[in-house]
Amino acid sequence: MSPESQGQNEHYLTLSRRGFRTWRGDRPFWAGLFTMLGGVPIMYFPYANMHLGNVTLAMSTTAGAGSLIIGVLLVTLGLTMWFHSIVRVFAGVAAILLALISIPVANIGGFLIGFIFALLGGALSVAWAPGEPPAEAEPASAEEAPETVSFAKGDEPLPEGALYGAGVPEQPQAPYDTTVDAEGGRHRAG
Predict the structure, then answer these.
(1) CA distances from 160 to 80, 142, 145, 153 (A)
(2) Are 37 and 76 in contact (CB under 8 A)?
């Protein structure tokens, strides 16, 4: 083996980190993470007891089951954003709606912590768009450059593939006979 060989002796942590970075870049990662972080306090606080010295403060409400359902749905939507990113817009809108519903149902949206995280995660999911593949390189020499066309004297030349009459689309010809058969007052379809 030569010292110039690449990739042979890389540490497994470097490879794992690079693989995770690639995985994270192909989906709305931060949107899913914030949505899941928003679901946790929303489903936790209605069932939590806070101890202040000898006093136990129970924060349970009558809508404890509703809080649990909202929190579990937010965590599920966050996982959906990660593993099925094609439905990211639906998951984002649903996360925003559940965050808004959590205000009256789940202790002011998990004391506003869960509400803000879920709202931010839903907005990031709706706004996320997949990356575009890298553009092809420009031709290196004048021999490989596309031909140009000029219409009148003094006009700047236009590239060969430019849309010259893009303002007026061509009308396709109908592939069938459009005449109406007048037998018995009925047309062909009927």
Answers:
(1) 45, 14, 10, 17
(2) no
